[in-house]
Write a structure and sequence with these properties.
Layout: H1 2-28, H2 43-60, H3 63-71, H4 78-91, H5 96-110, E1 198-205, E2 214-220, E3 231-236, E4 239-244, E5 255-259, E6 266-270, E7 277-280, E8 284-288, E9 291-294, E10 296-302
Parallel strand pairs: 2-10
Antiparallel strand pairs: 1-10, 2-5, 3-4, 3-6, 6-7, 8-9
Helix pairs in contact: 2-3, 2-5, 4-5
Length: about 300
Amino acid sequence: MSEQRGSWYLLTGLVLGAVLGLVYARLLSPVRYFDSSPAALHPQFKDTYRALIAAAYAATGDLVRARARLELLGDPDPVRAVAGQAQRSLAGGNAPAEASALGSLALALGQPAGSHSPTSPPGSGPAQEATPTESANPPGAALTPTEGIPSPNPGAPASPTAGNTPVTITAAPGATPFDTPTLLPTRTATPTPGSPFVLQSRELFCDPELPEALIQVLAYDAAGQPVPGVEVMITWQGGEEHFFTGLKPELSLGYADFAMTPGTVYTLRLAEGGQPIADLSAAECEGGPGGRYYGAWRLVFSQP
């Protein structure tokens, strides 16, 4: 009898404890919820936030909303933050779709104001390239963030874009009126399916201001416009790396670079096709303030 009475006491104590705990948690000291700013997130969660913004932009093309969401993160330079995450995503072996979405968002954010429609999908805005200004550097100098990228066809005439010439459509007498078609903006240059890139030039440039030995890749379409999103594959003994053009829009939409390790021989190839470029290695130059320094290989590709 005493053992049964003790069991009932334990059950009664558990019930009373649960009731008192609920009363305290619900009435006396309820949980208070606070709205946290995305700027207070851990850097890892900020990367996840940017990836979601890029995925939403890739699906909707709403650049205004994407820009507003990025401002909530409080990054000093949202364009650099998104482009840097795209490069880290490629280096970390993440899904190529994530890196591509981040790269497209970085390109759209880097375009001049008014060159991209808020409701148009990525790549449907007019292709605009900053006009390079004259520099004191001699011809053949390696690219720096303050220089523009010349077109492989500098003498080619500018192709007309939609909207230069007004179009007037007049209905015939007695015909049913119809809506005037709206001219769509020129699409940003993209690789032509089935048209491989061809190596146009391979030159070694010496610039003592370069921090390290580089392989600089420039991709142009048949019209001489820089092409973003071209996958570049570099292999060496015991290693391989993939990256894309356009992740540094401050230089060019068709630009990409790779830092070489001295003493290593690399082979480069574009995923769009073409012959591999072999025997690329860090080459030394002379004449700088420190004597000898490493130059940069500049490879220019274009579509026929």
